[in-house]
Every structure is written in C-alpha cells, then in structure tokens.
Amino acid sequence: MLNYIWAFMIVVGVIYGAATGNIEQVGNGAIESAEDAVKMCITMLGIMSMWMGFMEIARRSGLIAKAEKGLNPAINWLFPNLPMEHKARPHIITNIIANILGLGWAATPAGLKAMEELSKYKIPQHGEIIPSHISTNEMCTFLVLNISSLQLIPVNMIAYRSQYNSANPASIVAPAILATTISTLVGIIFCKIMCKKKIKTL
Fold first, then answer.
1. Contact 74, 97 (CB under 8 A)
2. How confident is the model at residue 125 (pLDDT cuts 50, 70, 90)?
3. What Å distances lie between residue 68 and 30, 91, 95, 97, 151, CA to CA?
4. How many structural domains does the chain have?
5. Is residue 135 part of a domain?
6. Closest to 148 measured CA to CA, from 191, 106, 116, 110
7. Are 91 and 12 members of one domain?
8. Which of 94, 122, 128, 150 could form a disulfide with 184 if both were Cys (CB 3.0 to 4.6 A apart)?
9. E strands within 7-154?
10. Residue 1 located in a structural domain
11. Is 84 helix (H, G, I), strand (E, B) or coil?
12. Are 29 and 128 in the same domain?
C-alpha cells in the first residue's frame, strides 16, 4: 500500500512541476533529497552500530541479565498468565530494554520473535481455548507496550536533529521521556481495563 502512496505522490509532484514550469526544481529537489538520504543512512549506521556495541558489551558483562531479573516483577504484573518458562518471555524483555534505550531497530527483531512465540504457544484465556486467528490478552498487551515504548534516550530523534544541524540535538530527551512515559502509562491502563472487561463478560 505504501508503494502505491509514494508512487502517487511522485507522479503528482512531477505533473504539478511540469504544469507550473518548475520541473527543473523538481529534478534538483530529487537529487538533493537522495543525497540527504544517503548522509542520513550513514549517520544512523554509525549511531546504531555504537549503541548495538554497547548492548553487546552489556549482554556479555551480565548487565542485561541483571536488567531482566529486575524487570521480571513488571513482566509478571503486565502478563499475569505468561509462565516463567514461556519462550516469548526473554524476547519480550529484550524488546522492552531496547525500546527504553531508544534502540527501536534493535527492538524490532526481538518484538517479532516474541509475537511469533506468543502466537505459536497461545495461553488459555480464563480457561478458554483461543482460536489461531484471535489475539490473546498477552499479544495485545505486548503490542500496545511496544508501540507506546517508554524511551530514556531517543537515539533516532537525536540523530535526525543532529543531521539537520540542530543547535542542541539532545534537548529532545526530556520531552521524549515525558511523552513516552505518558503514552506507556495510558497504554498499560487501557490494557488492564480491557482485560478485566473481558473477564467480566465471560
């Protein structure tokens, strides 16, 4: 779908540029944008490589394992029906840690794996067997948690602001923490309300 949208926008831009006599500016803009895109990719590659390196150091040093133990009480509260031995559990925790550190690209593979495991080994909801085409409470909660994603260090936004010569790229940190904290709290409250509503209707 996105391919069709982008193709439509490009065609409309070219037609409008030709109709208004600005086709040369359209061509120049396309070339400049392509150059900016390459520069942005190089910038993001360096920043993500650095943070992924930090994550690997943290994993090998045992910091990630300690963080996982610290998150276990929160995971137990957020996913009360998720057994300790469930295969999705470590992927959920890895996803949350990566999101908190602002490593959205690193969080995505763990998130996909967690959702795959949750769909593969579905947890009975209040004694009911869940059909394969229906999402469980755990799947919905994890999706909302991943989307709202509390972030302490918005790495991507800092990189974008730095790329476009912001006077203070890191000034986004405090507003980002506030915004993602609120979005995460609202998401969690919504999930808890909906889960309890489901229980009452059974």
1. no
2. low
3. 46, 10, 11, 8, 17
4. 2
5. yes
6. 191
7. no
8. 150
9. none
10. yes
11. coil
12. no
Q: Which two tokens stand for residue 131?
A: 């059909």
Residue position matching structure tokens 């890191």: 170
**Dihedral angle of Cα 86, 87, 88, 89, to the nearest 10 degrees:** 60
Q: Which token pair is 3?
A: 């391919």
In the predicted structure, residue 6 carries a pLDDT above the cut 70: yes
Tokens (6 digits) for 170: 């890191």
What are the tokens at 187? Answer: 């998401």
Model pLDDT, residue 124: 57
Residue 93 within a domain: yes
Q: Which domain range does residue 104 map to?
A: 62-201
Q: Which amino acid is at 201?
A: T
User: 143-157: buried (b, 16+ CB within 10 Å) or exposed (e) per residue?
Assistant: bbbbebbbbebbbbb
Query: 137 near 202, Cβ under 8 Å?
Result: no
Q: Which residue has the tokens 């999705």?
A: 88
What pLDDT score was predicted for residue 185? 92
Residue 9 CA: distances (Å) to CA of 5, 6, 86, 125 = 6, 5, 45, 45
Q: CA 129 to CA 154: how far, in whole Å?
A: 40
